Amino acid sequence: MIETATLGSDLKICRIINGMWQVSGGHGHITPQKAISEMDLYHKAGLTSWDMADIYGPAEGFFGKFRQNLEKSGHDLSGLVGLTKFVPNPVPMNRTIVERAIKNSILHMNVSSLDLVQFHWWDYDDPRYFDALYHLTALRDEGKIKHIGLTNFDTIRMQMMLDKGFVIVSNQVQYSIIDQRPQMEMEEFCKKHNIHLLAYGTLGGGLLSERFLGSDDPTRIDLNTYSLQKYHNMIDAWGGWTLFQKLLHTLDKIAKKHHTSIPNVATRFILDKPQVAGVIIGARLGIAQHIEQNKQTFSLNLDSDDYSAIQEITSQANDLFDVIGDCGSEYR
Ligand SMILES: NC(=O)c1ccc[n+]([C@@H]2O[C@H](COP(=O)([O-])OP(=O)(O)OC[C@H]3O[C@@H](n4cnc5c(N)ncnc54)[C@H](OP(=O)(O)O)[C@@H]3O)[C@@H](O)[C@H]2O)c1
Predict the structure, then answer these.
(1) DSSP-derived 3-state class of residue 118
(2) Residue 66 lies in a domain
(3) Atom of ligand 1 at shortest distance to CA of 21?
(4) Which of 22, 54, 179 has most ligand 1 atoms within 8 Å of its beta carbon, as the pocket-test mutant?
(5) pTM above 0.90?
(6) Which residues lie below 8 Å from residue 247, measured CB to CB, with a gap of 6+?
(7) 266: domain range?
(8) Residue 242: inside a domain, yes or no?
(9) Distance from residue 22's CA to the centre of ligand 1 (Å)
(10) Number of independent structural domains in the chain
(11) Residues within a 6 A CB radius of ligand 1
């Protein structure tokens, strides 16, 4: 059984979403043909929701080509969902610039309307993000976009957007056993306003897996993807490698008790958080895939002993909300 969730009034997504940052460079050599044909394995397995961005290199184009292939072979496209992002540089956010970006994504993804546009902005001191939201809203009303979401915005800015009347269905943020900042303020706020969270970094780029269980603190050479490097830094801020090993051993015990794996426990832990609609798991298309193993998350139930054991470790760590700030602060 594939768990699903609904964003806004009608956007049905799989609760495990395939993440495409991994095809944009820094994650090993991606061969386009191989990558696109591997998307079929995910689709056939029922994992039919994809997360990408205008800044993820060929990702939107891979999605478009994959969609075209499905269409040509007469497949039903109704379950296929493409969530993209609009990540502009700090330039004037006028209609021409915003519309051009959205039209490019439409073209690359081979759709007539974008399912979800998740908007990112680098600098809160530059208020032109409200202009961007204004034009995104107009494009949504004209049918070019079905829903507007955010990525890496903090709770204060979300409140400001709602105060101005913008309708937002989701915020994509880092959320993992290591980084539980969303539950400090954002979760309650989102609940009140019917906004969902989409979580990334849930597997720490692969650090939260058996591969690193019992291993020494990895060197730069061992951390051979941008993703591993990013989340290794997060572990340093959280409490360091020794505490992380304690966590991995605890997760391994829980996994063994349920006849499953550490990634499944880490994913289920976040899927069970209030307001989380889905967890985005990075896919190094054509290099490595964990489809069947990750689907096992859907049949896993964690019990109160499991939560207590995890809490016993995380309570020894630094509070990343204090160290970094609310979600997205790491980008600013
Ligand atoms: N909005 C943002 O700012 C932002 C930032 C980061 C990511 N994202 C989104 O989130 C997605 C996820 O990226 P992430 O960097 O957070 O990575 P992640 O999902 O935490 O980790 C992905 C890696 O975990 C490993 N993995 C997956 N399933 C596994 C399993 N069952 N067993 C063992 N290892 C497993 C794989 O490593 P191997 O390939 O080595 O096997 C995979 O490459 C991105 O693609 C992107 O869509 C968004």
Answers:
(1) strand
(2) yes
(3) 45
(4) 22
(5) yes
(6) 177, 178, 310, 313, 314
(7) 4-206+262-299
(8) no
(9) 7
(10) 1
(11) 19-22, 51, 151-152, 172, 200-206, 209, 227, 263, 280-282, 284, 288, 290, 293-294
Q: What is the pLDDT along the chain (332 residues), one digit of tens a residue?
A: 999 999 999 999 999 999 999 999 999 999 999 999 999 999 999 999 999 999 999 999 999 999 999 999 998 898 999 999 999 999 999 999 999 999 999 999 999 999 999 999 999 999 999 999 999 999 999 999 999 999 999 999 999 999 999 999 999 999 999 999 999 999 999 999 999 999 999 999 999 999 999 999 999 999 999 999 999 999 999 999 999 999 999 999 999 999 999 999 999 999 999 999 999 999 999 999 999 999 999 999 999 999 999 999 999 999 999 999 999 999 99
Distance 279 CA to ligand 1 centre (A): 10
CA nearest neighbour of 152 among 122, 115, 116, 128: 122
Nearest CA to ligand 1 atom 17: 205
Token pair in block for residue 84: 């993209």
CA distance 72 to 92: 40
The number of beta carbons lying within 10 Å of the beta carbon of residue 148 is: 23
Q: Is residue 13 part of a domain?
A: yes
Q: How many angstroms separate the alpha carbon of residue 206 from the centre of ligand 1?
A: 7
C-alpha span between 280 and 262 (Å, rounded) = 16
Q: What is the CATH number of the domain that holds 291?
A: 3.20.20.100
Query: Side chain identity at 158, as an amino acid letter?
Result: M
53: tokens are 């961005």
The verdict on residue 175 lying in a domain is yes
Ligand 1 pocket test target in 54, 280, 291, 331 with most atoms within 8 Å of CB:
280
